[in-house]
Amino acid sequence: MNGALGVAIAATFVWLGMVLAISFLEAPLKFGAPGVTLQIGLGIGRRVFRALNACEGVLAAAALAATLIHGDATAALVALLAATAMLAAQLLFVRPALTQRSDAVLAGAEGPRSRAHYVYVGLELVKVIALITGGVLLLT
Q: Where are the transmembrane segments (predicted)?
């Protein structure tokens, strides 16, 4: 295994682990913790996801660049590009709607839950599948 391949594999699986830990473990558990109100949970969640998304951007760049440098990994590159596209869709199209809704809730507004949250989770699921696929392809 050369250095670029190792970096690609590491970046891919660290990215996958972060998404699984934050999106599918920390986020749902936070709202069930004693004393955590919706406003507190949203405030924490906004900071955590802002940090997660920044780390994801760095890991996506590292994984893509290392896969390109390694060469001979077209299928893995396509999977990593798909994961990166899901991240971009979340940041550009879904996150603004979630931010608008959380701003309103933090200001005291009530109303129906945002459907954008379900879109975000759907994109997370696709991203997880793409990262698993890309990581496994890099290992083979």
A: 6-27, 48-69, 75-98, 118-139
Which CB contacts under 8 angstroms, 24+ apart, belong to 51-56? 52/18, 52/19, 52/22, 52/23, 53/87, 53/90, 53/91, 53/95, 55/15, 55/18, 56/15, 56/18, 56/19, 56/87
Which distant-in-sequence residues (6+ apart) come within 8 Å of 27 by Cβ? 45, 48, 49
Residue burial 76-111, b: 16+ Cβ < 10 Å; e: rest:
bbebbbbbbebbebbeeebbeebeebbeebeeeeee
Distances from the Cα of 113 to the Cα of 47, 83, 100, angstroms: 20, 26, 12
pLDDT digits (tens, 9 = 90+) for 69-113: 999 889 999 999 999 999 999 999 999 999 998 888 888 888 777
Residue recorded with tokens 């009530």: 110
E strand intervals along 1-140: none
Residue 67 has a pLDDT of 97
Delimit the domains of the chain by residue range: 3-139
Is pLDDT above 90 for 22? Answer: yes
Which tokens in the block code for residue 80?
Answer: 């990593």
